């Protein structure tokens, strides 16, 4: 039976009178905040980074998925504001958590950001609020951690406040889908919470996909990323095997994908990048230990994908030795592309960072060029690279390197000019063949 608290909140959401709060204004949070604001809700964005507030106050977006114009439109309409003061959570009817969920160095889940955020919300929790977790995590996190922390206030989920989970599905650089057009999986702690979730997200996105529990929704996100991780690992392993046989794995994939059923193409690369695929599968691996069940596919896929940067550098060293008669330890290498995927500035978990480190561990010198990343920002695992700057991709500059290692195939690069200037090219993305620029000094890896 519906409670007065539920009825009041549902009416607020249905009439767009509810204020939404989005915690974490990064690659997930900012696009979501703008999409929700565009649907007619007043939105307050919360973040602990003052530099983001400076950019937002200047109506300058730092996320590619949100244009300056789109940001300015919602600010000028009075539907979006941002702050570092979490006291504003008390005025929010819907609170959405979009904070990082990284791994520790031992590949265990690091839920410190989720826990800290939940404790911050608890300070301002009041009856009549819906609290949603969007951060990717293992099944049970929403109910066992977020809900428990919030109920530590004495208020009760399903009676005083409501808890739900909806996995983020952002894909930086995707020109075909954006936050409002990507189907949204939603779940809640009980039927009333689910009803609120469907109504709220249904107002902001085109398609809502309800599932039976928060744990199920959490498992949906992990399944999506495990699927990609395992299949990418498969083609990465096939790449190494076929290369030893003198077979071009990219040619194999192009032919295989002509089959109109039973096959989906995945492509090899220098390793996995982005916040999701290299990290999320290990959340399930960690949780499965509680049930004394192995996750061999997931762990093997992780091993294969993690080994790719070292395999690529091995191919680089071999090519330098055979083609240039020069050891990697005496060579200068230009890594082309620092972002983990083309046409974005996102370097989270980028294999390019590891490629630079391995080249230098073996005595070589490595620089990078990326049209989207002018300088390497601070990172948790690659602190020694902080502050390095992108070098120019002029013919004179390129000719000064013993090899160019293509790690990210940004569309804005003039590959024909690069082919003319570079003495040796190691292509991990098959970009030269795709563009009809194959040459003797272009080696696939």
UniProtKB/TrEMBL annotation:
Keyword NAD recorded: yes
This protein's record includes keyword Translocase: no
InterPro entries xref list: 6-PGluconate_DH-like_C_sf (IPR008927), NAD(P)-bd_dom_sf (IPR036291), UDP-Glc/GDP-Man (IPR017476), UDP-Glc/GDP-Man_DH_C (IPR014027), UDP-Glc/GDP-Man_DH_C_sf (IPR036220), UDP-Glc/GDP-Man_DH_dimer (IPR014026), UDP-Glc/GDP-Man_DH_N (IPR001732), UDP_ManNAc/GlcNAc_DH (IPR028359)
Domain UDP-glucose/GDP-mannose dehydrogenase C-terminal: 334-434
Keyword entries, A-Z: NAD, Oxidoreductase
Superkingdom of source: Bacteria
Entry-linked NCBIfam families: NDP-sugDHase (TIGR03026)
PANTHER family: UDP-N-ACETYL-D-MANNOSAMINE DEHYDROGENASE
Family affiliation: Belongs to the UDP-glucose/GDP-mannose dehydrogenase family.
Name the UniProt record assigns to this protein: Nucleotide sugar dehydrogenase
Organism: Rhizobium croatiense
């Amino acid at each position: 039976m519906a409670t007065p608290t539920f009825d009041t909140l549902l009416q607020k959401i249905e009439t767009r009178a509810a204020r939404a709060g989005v915690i974490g204004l990064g690659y997930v949070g900012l696009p979501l905040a703008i999409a929700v604001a565009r649907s007619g809700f007043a939105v307050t964005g919360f973040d602990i980074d003052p530099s983001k507030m400076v950019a937002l106050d200047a109506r300058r977006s730092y996320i590619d998925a949100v244009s300056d114009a789109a940001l300015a439109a919602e600010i000028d309409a009075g539907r979006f504001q941002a702050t570092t003061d979490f006291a504003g959570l008390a005025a929010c009817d819907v609170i959405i958590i979009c904070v990082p969920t990284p791994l520790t160095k031992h590949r265990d889940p690091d839920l410190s950001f989720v826990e800290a955020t939940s404790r911050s919300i608890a300070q301002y929790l009041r009856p009549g609020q819906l609290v949603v977790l969007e951060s990717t995590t293992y099944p049970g996190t929403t109910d066992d951690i977020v809900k428990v922390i919030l109920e530590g206030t004495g208020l009760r989920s399903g009676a005083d406040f409501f808890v739900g989970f909806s996995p983020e599905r952002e894909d930086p650089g995707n020109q075909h889908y954006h936050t409002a057009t990507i189907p949204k999986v939603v779940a809640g702690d009980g039927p009333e919470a689910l009803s609120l979730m469907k109504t709220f997200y249904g107002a902001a996105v085109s398609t809502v996909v309800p599932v039976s529990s928060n744990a199920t929704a959490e498992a949906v996100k992990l399944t999506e990323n495990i699927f990609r991780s395992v299949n990418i690992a498969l083609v990465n392993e096939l790449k190494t095997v076929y290369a030893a046989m003198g077979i071009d794995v990219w040619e194999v994939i192009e032919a295989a994908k002509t089959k109109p059923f039973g096959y989906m193409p995945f492509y090899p690369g220098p390793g996995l990048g982005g916040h999701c695929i290299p990290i999320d599968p290990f959340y399930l691996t960690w949780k499965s230990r509680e049930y004394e069940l192995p996750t061999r596919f997931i762990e093997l896929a992780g091993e294969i994908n993690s080994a790719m940067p070292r395999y690529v550098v091995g191919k680089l060293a071999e090519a330098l030795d055979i083609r240039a008669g020069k050891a990697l330890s005496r060579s200068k290498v230009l890594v082309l592309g620092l972002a983990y995927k083309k046409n974005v500035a996102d370097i989270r978990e980028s294999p390019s960072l590891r490629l630079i480190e391995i080249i230098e561990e073996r005595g070589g010198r490595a620089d990078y060029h990326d049209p989207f990343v002018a300088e390497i920002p601070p990172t948790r695992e690659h602190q020694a690279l902080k502050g390095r700057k992108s070098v120019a991709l002029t013919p004179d500059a390129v000719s000064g390197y013993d090899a160019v290692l293509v790690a990210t195939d940004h569309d804005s690069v003039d590959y024909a000019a690069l082919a003319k200037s570079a003495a040796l090219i190691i292509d991990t993305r098959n970009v030269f063949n795709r563009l009809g620029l194959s040459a003797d000094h272009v080696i696939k890896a």
